[in-house]
Records
---
Amino acid sequence: MVIKMIDLHSHILTGVDDGAASAEESLAVLKAMEAKGVKKVAATSHYPLYEIDNYKGFILDKLQQLRQEAEAAGLEIEILSGSEILIDRKTAELFYRDQLLTLNETNYILLETYPNTYPDYFSDLIHDLKAMGYQIIIAHPEKYPYIQADFSLLYQWVEEYGLNLMLNSSSLVGKHGSKTKETAEKILRLGLPQLMASDTHGIKRRTFSLDQGLKRAESLKPGSRDIFLKNAEAVTKNHKLEKFEIKREEKSILKKFFSFFSSSKDI
Ligand SMILES: [Fe+2]
């Protein structure tokens, strides 16, 4: 049976970022997604595009163009608006000035950070965006080396900041190496994510894998596929997301041993 999916992270707009490079490639990706059971896909091109003045208008024009081409090609897949926003100190201001896109015109926004450094302004930015009423989704937390090195940040993001974590299916099926795969598995096992999406970039590289990722998630954590499917739909409707029960990070015997000695020294 083909499961009907909604994919909230993709780079399918033509010639906008490092995703689909031609109209043919955009259509080929959409066709492949539709064949796998995707009924809706959000086009979440990377922001920033510094050379473009009217980013939102530019993206909406590209989106309209792709929708027309998809319809002319006989595809039924629905293409939703969105953007994957690389945060910086100006992100809240840009939202305030209505220059950035949310997911499907809801209050949900998809954010990413530079990979190697945890931004020192992160908590201030989150505070400002939440004060403006946005529901924040963090793309592929498993890929950040600073998360791989300090997992406690994720608990803070989810439990203290109320952020939603979106795993890449590509991470879970091992397309970004073993460290990222293990981190994705651990995040899932501990019940920290709310969403999974494909982050598809093209027809030959970084290809669609949400169907495989959901299957893998279900085998690691039974029931997770249904939650991911329901939550993706909830985002498109601006509804609340379901959450897993969060488990604490399991410590290795060696870590327990060292933490026992470091705490006994304090007494
Ligand atoms: Fe992406």
Note: Confidence is low (pLDDT under 50) at residues 263-267.
---
Amino acid sequence: MSQPTGSTRLAAVIGDPVRHSLSPLLHNTAFAALDLDWVYVALEVGAGHTAEALEAMRTLGIAGLSVTMPHKEAAAAACDELSPDAAALRAVNCVVNDGGRLIGHNTDGDGFIAAIDAELGFDPRGRRCVVLGAGGAARSIGLALARSGASQIAVINRTAERAQQAAELFGEVALVVSGGPEASVIAESDLIVNATSVGMSTSATDGEAAEFPFDLELIGNHHTVVDIVYRPLLTPLLAHAQARGARTANGVAMLTHQAAIAFTLWTGQAAPIEAMTAAVSASLVD
Ligand SMILES: NC(=O)c1ccc[n+]([C@@H]2O[C@H](COP(=O)([O-])OP(=O)(O)OC[C@H]3O[C@@H](n4cnc5c(N)ncnc54)[C@H](OP(=O)(O)O)[C@@H]3O)[C@@H](O)[C@H]2O)c1
């Protein structure tokens, strides 16, 4: 990529913590692959400063912004306009600066659907899905699965009240499972998605046996199992699913595809998915 000039356009991610973010690698790889005069940086912005950061986007003419923890909900409140997904989820992970008008999007759900299509050829239409988790990622995935025609979305979460709130977003295909699911819900499902942080490598969970709210022996070779965690690339759930013959995907494809959608919203160009995937995969080798 050539050096930034006076006309280089700026995109950024705000978050805290943000120094570990793979977004600069993904987006700068994409800008370079298409020879676009853009640059992407990570900005550490603490909780409580979301609205100021979005105002700075206008003042500084930042063209595109990614939004991560802890700003997604506050960014939804600070945008001038929201996409249907961002409005339903009340959470924004991508902002487009349209001449000073800030338009908030949530690209996680569509990124997930694009990822399971590209990686596994999985079409949710008419399929029974199990979503583990009820946080921001689980809600965006469940909403996108419902819109894509899934026939059932069983929501399983540690905190039952949050499972209920998430299920309300998904409409009549939602099934809230509390207190451990019936074996048949797991056994008869087509897709199992881990959208919790269980299995993620952090100082808090490293070395701990990951605990799932159902017997992993229920996973069989008819299942597609997706873990949206990508550190490590092979999570305990995926290792188990592979051993039982299931088709699996980790979180790299969703990460790449949600970024690709943001890239297109900002630049108007199709994202170079292969270059982005190669860059992020190389950086995450276990
Ligand atoms: N690949 C991607 O592109 C992508 C995108 C977004 C997120 N992610 C990953 O997805 C995970 C969730 O992110 P998020 O933004 O949805 O976080 P979040 O809003 O904080 O939700 C966390 C979820 O994990 C559950 N959870 C946390 N610790 C648990 C434990 N010890 N046992 C059982 N359940 C537990 C929570 O349950 P409670 O409701 O009971 O607290 C909640 O459902 C993270 O690992 C994140 O890195 C990946």
Note: Residues 108, 133-138, 157-159, 162, 195-198, 200, 228-230, 251, 254-255, 258 surround NAP (CB under 6 Å).
